Sequence to fold (371 residues):
Amino acid sequence: MRGFRAPATAILLAFTGFLFAEEPPDVVLYLVGDAGRSVPRISLAFTPLAAQAAKDGGRSVVAILGDNVYPAGLPAPGSPDRAEMETRLKAQVAGARAAGRGFVIPGNHDWAQWTADGWNAIRRQEAFVTAHGGGTVTFAPSGGCPGPAVFDVGATVRLIVLDTQWWLHQFEKPEGASSPCREKTEADVVAGVREALRTAGRRRTVVLAHHPLAAGGLSGSHYTWRDHLFPVTAFLSWFWLPMPVFGSLTVAGRKAIFNEQVEAAPDYRRLMESMKRAFDPVPPLVWAAGHDHNLQVIRLPGPGRSWNLISGAGGGRRHLMPAWSIDGTLFCRSVPGYMRLEFPLDGPAILEVISVKSSGKTATIYSMSLE
Fold:
């Protein structure tokens, strides 16, 4: 009997392990933004991200959340810096291709640093991504349109992609009766987002954009003693030259003369209020954005239990901006890294915030279940 019991026990244990093995997720979504600096800085985030995504068994999707080419988007062919900017964009597209499937979302810098050439720059970037995306990396929304562009992924996720810079852009853009876009007005965009949320059924909804709806950083119009004493560190993190008087004047100027890229600006506030209307009565699970160069997890107010995730730390340590807690903040950190969202067939999504050290080693520095 001894010769029989051991195999039988092994078979029983194997069968029990099969029954209780952890079911793999349906979709794994990676969030990384504001990465468009030099290739070594891009690789700092994208190399470990792609390596991790490759282990997901074909279930991974990478969302590149804007400001993909600094400082002013992809220039026209023949421009002196065209080759360098192509290299930066190609590195990100390659990382998304290696991971499986990817979406490239435009940010304010991709609109030629929100100048008159912005719409042209967006179309140039889309053409480049399409040419190098291998059919698996998509630039969205297309043509400088505001969106929403809607993509159902797996059995559990609906991605709703917006170009939020379209709302803030002060120069030529596709809008009004002559627009080639399906959504020609802000009201059209609100209606489109509401419809995409309403018809999602049991799918978890994730809005992909560049600008956050809440932020504990400079885009949220928040300032600390460092901005008053060391004002240049907001743009050059290594420039620790004290300028107390100049710093205070700079903060006062930012508050008085609104930059359209911060929450205090009228256009930005209109964007946020419009999205609140779009979320009534069905809000998304997640609004994912970059813009602030840090990592933040913020719970949005209201009964919908929506989450505002900021993953704008793809540009390396020298590109970081400060972050601190505001109402609803569960986590904030100014470190290079990205976020990973795991969507099982049943049960809540799981969020991981992952930091990347200069050596390329990664660490999960925050995780939680998104109800």
